[in-house]
Amino acid sequence: MCGARAAPAEAVMFRCACAWLLGCLRVALLWLPQHAAAQPGMPSSSSSPSAPECYPGGHRVLRDPHRSVDFDSTEIQNTAIQDLICDHSLLAGWYRFQLRNKPAEMPTSCVEMNRCGTQAPVWLSLKDTVLPRPGEVRQLSACATWQFFHGSAKDCCLFRIPVTVRNCGDFLVYYLQPTQGCMGYCARELGSRVCPAGEVEVSGRCRAAVPSLPSRPVITPELIGHSVHLHCSFIPPPWTQVLGFQVVWARHIGSSMKAEIRQESTLKPFSVVEMDGVHFRLGETFSCSVSTFRVNSSHFRSAPRESESFYAGLKFSPDSLHIAENSKEQEVTVHSTVPIPCYSSDLGQQCGVPLVLSVHDPDSLRQEVSNVVLSSCQVKIQPKACRGGSCGWATFFITAVTDFTRDGNRPSLVAALPGPGSPRLWKTYIPTSLKVVVQDVPTSICYSLTDPHIITLDGRRYENHQTGTFVLYRSLARGFEVHSRQWDCGSRYYSTACNCGVAVQEGNDVAIFDMCNGQPQETRPQLTVKNVGDEGSRVRVLESHQGKKVTMLFPSGAFVRADVGDWGMSLSVRAPSVDYSNTRGLCGTFDRNGNNDFQGSDGGFYGPDDLHSFIEDWRISPGESLFDKTPPGTTQRLRRPFCQCHRDYIPSQHPDTGMADSDCITYNNVDYTSVFPSMDTTVEHIRSPDRVGSILEMSAFSSHPLETRQLWIQGQNNQNIEGGLELAGEFREDFLLSVNRNKRQTSFQFQPVFTTQSLSQTDFERFAYFFPEDHQQEPRKEVEPGWPTPSGLSSAKALEVCHMALVNSTVGTVCRGLLGRRLDEAVDLCMLDLQLKDDLGWEEALLPYLENECERRLLENRTHRASEESTSAGASEKVVMALRCPNFCNGNGECMEWGCQCFPSYSFHDCSLAIGQPVEITDLENSGLCDIRAFDCRNVRVFGLGFIDSADLSCHATRLKFMNKGWVPAEQQRTKATFLSSKALDCAVPSLSNTAITTEDFMMDDKPYARWEIKVTNDGSQYSQAKVLTIYDGVCQVCQASRSGLCKLKERTCNIDGMCFAAGDTNPSSPCLLCDPDKSKFSWSVNQDNEPPSFHPPQSHLRTFAGENFIFQFAASDPEGSALLFQLEEGPKGAALSPAGLLIWKVPSLLGEEEEGDGQGTTRSFRFTVSDECNAQRTFSIEVDVAPCGCHHGGTCLPDVNFPAGSGRYLCMCPLGTQGELCEEGVDGCSSAPCVVGRCVDAAGGYRCDCPAGLRGPTCGEDVNECERKPCFPGVPCFNSFGSYGCGPCPRGMMGNGSSCTGSASPPAGNVSATCASRPCFPGVQCINRRPPHVGYVCGRCPPGLHGNGRICTKSKKEASNHLPLQQTYGKSSRRSYKSKASMLHLPSLPSRLGVDHLSSFVRRPHRDGPSHRDGSSHRDPASERGGGTGRREAVTASRDGPGMLVAVLHIESNTRTGAGSRLDTRMNAGSRILISKMSDAAPPSAEPLQVPPSYQSKQKVQLNHVATTQAKPRTPPRPVLPLTAALTAVSFSLSESDFSADGDDAEPRRDTLVPLLTRTTPGKTLHLSPQGPAPVQEGFRTTATAHRLLTACAEQPCFPGVPCEPAVDGSFRCGRCPVGYTGDERTCRAVCRHACGRNMVCAAPNTCRCKPGYTGPNCQSVICDPECVNEGVCIAPDVCQCPAGFHGDDCQEALCRLPCENGGTCVGLQTCSCLYGFVGPRCETMVCRRHCNNGGQCVSPDECLCPPGWTGPSCETALCAPICLNGGMCVRPNTCQCPPGFYGAGCQNAVCSLPCKNGGVCMRNNVCSCLQGFAGRRCEKSVCEPRCVNGGRCVGPHVCDCPSGWRGKRCDKPSCLQKCLNGGECVGPNSCLCSRGWQGMLCQIPVCEQKCLHGGRCVRPNVCSCRTGYSGSLCSTRLPVARG
Description:
By secondary structure, this protein is mainly β. The protein contains 17 helices and 136 strands. Strands 1, 2, 3, 4, 5, 6, 7, 8 and 9 form a 9-stranded mixed beta sheet that branches. A hairpin with a 5-residue loop joins strand 115 (1751-1752) and strand 116 (1758-1759).
C-alpha cells in the first residue's frame, strides 16, 4: 500500500498509508456484528419508526462533495494531499449523507480506489442481505477497497467496518465509526427511487433488471494436463434474452473478509482458473460469485450468487485430536482437496505427493520428550479420482507417549510438509498442522525395600516379614504380573525377610532375576529372559553401577528394577498409565487412594489390623509361581512401531519407485529415559542361546539424551603374572573382552562346566531348585523389636547413623528439594532396619531407594523444568551429575556423561575401591578339601575380604608336587575368578588333563589326587596369601586339613588300573566282576553272589486266536543290571523267541476237532529260560489261550489294534456279499432296486443288470442310439427313442415299414416289379405273385432232376449255385434265431477266450481314378462310435462302392489254442493291414490293397468283428440274417433245396460268382486267396503259414484228398472234380448238406451236420468254456466268459479293484483287497502292529513300532527318563519322574524335609538332613565353631562367628570400639578404652591432672593446667600482680 500510487506529497502519503495499513492489520480484521449494538446511542430494537436518530437532532450530516463516488481523489493527491478525506478522526455516531444539498446514500457496490476523496473508499456491503425497510434497522458491514501494489488485483473488501443502517422512511441514517487508517466513507446521489443492486425502478417498484442464478455456483478442482485448475460451474437462469455472466474469484481472509482476485465476463456457464502458486495458491480458501447481465447492455447486473467456500490443500481427518496416555492408537487420514498431477523427474514418471510428518510443540519450546509419536515419519498421497472432497489420501497412526511425566494436558502439532520430489505447486506449500491434545494419566512406582518395607503405588507403607513367594503386582488391564520371592536374610535376634528374587511376565515375555538358590553374602543373582511364544523377546535389560542396579524394561513402559546387595535386593516396580485403576497385589490398587490398597485376590478388602491376612492372600502356592513353571504362550497383537519424527527428520527416497517410504522401526511410544548410565546386557541373559537371533532389535528402544551408556574403563589391560604367566585356555577365552565391557555370568554359573550351547527344555527343568521357604507350614511370628537393641544400639545412635548415611549423603544433599518427606521416611526405615538386624552394616541399604525416587521426581518435572530452564538449569545438572556419579566418584575419578571414570588405581562404579589394596583370603570352601566323588572340584569357593569386580580379578593356581617327602611348587596357571561379593568368589581349578598327573604318577596311596595353592588378585599384580586346595578320592582316601597334606588309605578298597573302587563295586564293563579286597586289591574278582534274573509276568492272561501272527514282548530284569538273554525251551510248532524276549508264533488257522469242538479253543504252553551275563538263569512258563476264529462265511480274523497285544481281540474282514461284526449277515445287492429297467441279478460283490434291447449301462439307464447303425432303408430317416427307434416312410414309389422298402422310386433298369404275367419262372415252374405291400413274384421249385431257384434250373448243382445271389442282411442284433432263405455264411468258433466286438465301420475301396485318402481315413459308420458294445452281436453288411467290387474290413484278434493248457496270443500290430480283395471284371488283380485306418486298430479288443459279405443285386432290400459268432477260419455255403426256389424280388440274374474268401492274418503278414488264381503277395509282408500254395506240383498233393491231380507241361497242375457230396474248386472242397445245418453247426460230411467247436447239446445251443467260468460268470461263446462287474480274466477268476492293492494284498472282490498280515485298509495301505503303538509311536513293520523320542518298548509304552528316576520314582513320561512322597527333583534325587535343611544341608530322606561340615542339628540350623564364639558372639557359619557390637575377631574375642581410642588408649572391651597414664574418659579424650588446677584453671594435658588471666604456675596457684596506673 505504501507504494500504491506516485504523488508529489510522497512523504505524507507514505505516513498515512503505512499508519492505515498497520492499524487495519491489527484491529480492522476482526469484526463482530454485535459490536455496533454495544455502542452508546445505538438502538437495540430492530424496528423503531420513531427512533431518535431519525430526527434532526439525532444525527449529523456529511456534506463534503468529495465523498461522491464520481470524485477522483488523484487530483487531491497531486495538489493538496492534506485535503484527503480520512475518517479515522470521525466521531462515532449517526450520520446522514448529502451531496450538493441533495440526499445521498452509501454506495452498495464496489467503489474503485482513489475515489470519494480518499485512497481507500468505504462502501456498504449487502452480502446475502438487503437494505432495511422503512422503520427497520440492520447491522451491516462496510468494505474498504484496496490494491497493495500497482498491477496487482484489487480487493473490494480487504477490510470490513461494522455499520448500522436505519431506514427513516425518506432517508437512511448510518451509525459510523472512526476508521483504522486513511479511509473515507463514500456517498452517492439518489434518484427518484433507490433500488437494491441489480434492481431498477419500474412503475414505482424495484424489479430485477436481469434474473440472478437459480442456485449457488459450485467450485470443483480438476486436472488439465499437469496443472491444477478450479472450475466454477453454475446453472444459467431461464431468460428470453442472451445473458452474460460476470464471475468474481475471491480469496478468503480470516473468517469474515475476502479479497477479489479476478473478474471475468463470459457467456459460458463456467469459469476456469489455474492454480499458479501466485494468485491461486494451496492452503487458501476460494469462492466465486456470479452475477448475470444482458449481453447487449451490461449496465444492469443481477444480485450476485456466491459459491460455497473451497479450501485448496491438505486436510486432516479428524481435524483435531484429544487423546490420553493409555496406549490406544488413533488413525489419522490426510486428504488432498485438489488433484495431484504426475510429473517427470530423474527417477522417471512420478505420481503422488510425498509428505514429511513431524511433531513439535506449539509454544516453540523444545521439550525433552515428544508428547505424541507417529507410525510413520513420511507418507505419500497417491492420486485418485476426486470424490467426496478428496482427490487422494494417506493414513498413519498416532498415539500418546507414555512419558511418566506430569505435564498436564499438553498440546502438540503434527505438521505435514511436502517432501523432496513434490510437484511444483506443492513445493512452497506449508499446510496447516494437526492439533493434538494429550491428557496426562498418572503413573507411579511401588517399592519393596530391604527387609522388606513395602510402599504401595498410592504411597501407603507397611511391613512384610514373611518368607515365601508373593504376587507383588498384577495388572487387570493386560497380561502383566510381578512375583517376588523372600528369604531369611539373617537377623541375629528376629525373623526378618528380604527379597531374593523377582519374576516378571508381560505377554509372552518372562524375565527372572533370582539369587534365592544360594546363601546370603555368597550368592550372585542370575538373570534369565525368555519368550514363550513365537515372536522374539522384547524385554530390555539395563545394568548400572556394575550390576548393582538392574532394570528390566518392558514394551508397555513398565519396568522392574532390582538394587542388589549381599543380603538380597530391593525392588522398584513402575506402573505405566495404562494400569491406572487396574492393579492388584501387595503393591495395592493404583487409584490415588491409599485407604483401599489392602484388597485381596477375590476383590474383598482388609483392614489395617488384618495385614497378615492380606499378605497371606497374595502368597503363591509352591510350584505355581513364575520361578517354578513357565506359563503357556498366547497369541499377541502385532505391535506397531512408532517414531518421534522431529523437525530435522530427513526423509528417505527409494530410487526404484520414487516413493518415500517410512523407515520407522523403533518403538518410541514409551519413554525409557533414565538418568543412570547403563549397559544393555539383554543378549547375555537370553534363556536359550539359539534364541539370540529372535531378540528385539535394540534400536527399538531409542535412548534419550539423559540416558547414556556406561563405559567401564577399569585401568590397564591384563598383565602377565610373575613374568610370563599365561591364562588358562578356557579362562583366556572367557576374558577376551574389551576394557569397556562388563562380562556378566550365565545362568549356570555354579553348575559344572558342561557345554551349554544346545540346552533343551528338559535341561532347563533340571536346574530348577527347591525353595524351602515356600513349604513352611506356619507363618512366622510378628516382629516386636525395641530399643536399645540386644547389642546396646540406642535409637539416638541409630538416628545419628542413619542421618549421616542418608541425609548427609550426596544424593540426600543434592536431591533434598525433590525428595521432600521421602528423605525423612527413608531415615525412619533405616532406623527400623538397624533395630531389626542390630547390624550397622545396613545403614546405607536405602541409598538406592533415594536414588530411584530422586530420578523419578526429576523426570516427572521435566516439563516444569523446561519452562524454567534459565533459573533451574544449574540445580538440575547437579542432580543429574549426582545420580550419574555416586558420591561424585569419591574424589577418585572424573564424572563423565556415562558415569565415573576412575583413576588407574581405583575401581567400582563410584571409584570407592582401591585396586591396589591387598586382598585377604580367610578360607576355602570345606576348609580346602574336595572329594572328587562327591563334589565338582573344577571350581572352589573362596572366602575373604576386599574382592573387587574388576577386569583384572583372577585366581592364581600353583600345583604342588610331592617330592622328597615334601610338597614343592610345580606349574602355575591363571584361572577365571567369578565375582560373587566383596567377601566371596569362585575360582576355577585347572583341569587335571592339563597337569602333569598321569596314571603312572598316581597310584592310590597316601598322596591326594591333586593339591593346589590358590591366590586371588584384583589388579593382576598384588596377590593375596595362598590357601591350599586338596583334591582326593573319597572312595579310597580319608583326607584332613593337615600340615603334611597326606591322606590315609581306606582299608577295604581296590586299586585297579590306577582307579579306586570300594568293596563291592562292580566292573564298569562287566557286572560279573567286582572289587573284593579280601581276594585281591589290585584286580577284579568274580562275583560269587550274582542273583539270577527276575521275570515280570504279563499283567493279564495271554490270549490269541486261530490264524493270528501272535507277537508278544516278555520283560525281565537283572538285579545287577546286566544284559539278559531269552531262550525258548519248549513251545508249539513254529514259535520263536528272540534273544530280547520277543515271542513270535504263527497260530494255525485250523485247530483240531478235539480242540475246537466246544468252541472255546485250547491252551498252548511256552517254556523259556532267562539268563544274564554271568550265566545265572531261571526258567519260566507262560500259557496262551487260543480261541477259534469266529468269523462266519469265510471271513478272515485280523488283530484289533485298539487292544494291546496278547488280548486275543480280533476283527472280521468279511468276503463279498457278507457284513456284520462276525460276517453273519448277507448283502443283497438288488435290495435297493438299482436297475432302472431290466432284471437285477444279485452277484458276488454287488449286482448285475440284464438290460433289454436298446438299453445299456450299469443300471440300464443309458440309451443305445440305434440310428447310428443306419437300420432304416437307405434314404429313410431314422428317429431314435429311449430303448428303441423308428424309421420314416419309404421313398416315393416304394412300399415297406421304413426299415425295408420294396419297389423303386424311379423306372428300374430291369423289370423289378414284374409279375407272373411276364412268365419269369423256368418253364413248368409255378409262379406266385406277392401280396401287397410287397411287389414281385415267387417261383416254385425246379422240376425233378433239375437244380436252381425256379427261375434258372440246370442239371448241375454247381452250375446252379453260380447263379444264386448272396442276400444282404443288415439289422438290429437280437438273441432270437432266424431261418433265412438266403445262403448263410457259417463261421467256425474262435479259439480264443476273448469276447466278440462289433464291426466299427466299412471301408470302401477308392476308384482308381477317384480321390485317394492318404491319411488312412475312410467313411465311418455312426455305429463305429459305440465303444465297448452292448453285449449283443451284430451282423454288418458291407456296402458296395464300385461295380462288381465289395470290400469289408475284418479286425480279427485271437488267442489261438495251440495245445492243452497253452494259448497263443495273436494280435494285429498297430499299423497292420487286412486286405480282402475279389477279382472281378471291374477290379483287376492289380487293385491296391486296402489300408486299415489306425482308428480301427485302437478299438477295444474284446470281441471279434464280423462281416457278412455278399454281392447284392440292385434295388434288392436287405434281409436279416442270424448273428455271426465264430472266427473266420473256414467259409462254406450250405444250399438246401429251398435255396433253389424262385424269388420274385430279384431282377434278372447276374453272372456274378459267389467267391468264398479266406483271409488269415498274423502280425506283419497278409495272405490273399482267390479262386481266379494266385494272388500276389504284398511287398513288405511275409507269410509263414498259408491255406494253399499258389504254385505247386502234384507231388505235393495240392488237390483235395481223393481228387485227381493232373500236372501240366509248364509245371503247373490241374485238379479234378470234387468227390460226390463235396463242392469247391477241386483244390478246396467242402461237404454239402442237403438241408442247411442249424445254428452253431457245420457241415462236416455230405448231408452230415456236427456242432462247431465250443458248442454242444442236441441242437448245439450250449456253449462250452474250458475252464469253467467262476464268480457267476456266464459262458457266452466258446471259451469266452462274460464276467460280472468287479471281475475279469479268462474265467472271471480275477477281481477288479479300481486302485491296486498295496503291500502284497490281493484283490478278492469288487474294490476289496485281501491284505497280508500286518496291513489293513481298503487297499492294504495301512500298516498295523500286533501291539498298538502308544504315545505317538508309528508302525514301521507289522511287528515293529518306531517310538518317538522319550519312549521305548515293543508298543512304546515305556517312558525314558534321563537321568533315571531314583528313590523309587516312576518314569511316567519322557524325562518326567513321578516321585514318591518325600522326594522331588528331575530324577527324584532330592528328598523333601517338612522342615527344610538349612545352611546347605541335603535332605537325604524324610526329615533327615545331611549337614555340611561346620553345621549340626536336625535341620543343620546350628553352626559349629571351633573354638567357640565368646562374648555373646553367634556361630553363623562353619567357624564363622557373628560378633555383637563392640567385639570382633574370629572368636569375637577382640574388643571393638566404634570410635578410636585417643591419646594412646587401647580398646579393651566393647566401646571401652584402656587409657594410658594421664588420660581418662570413654575415648581417653580427657586429660588427668594429679593435682587439681586452682583458681578456675583447666587441665588440658596430663598434669598441665591452662590458667585464667591473672594466674600462673603449674597449678595456677600464683596470682600475677596487677599493673596500676
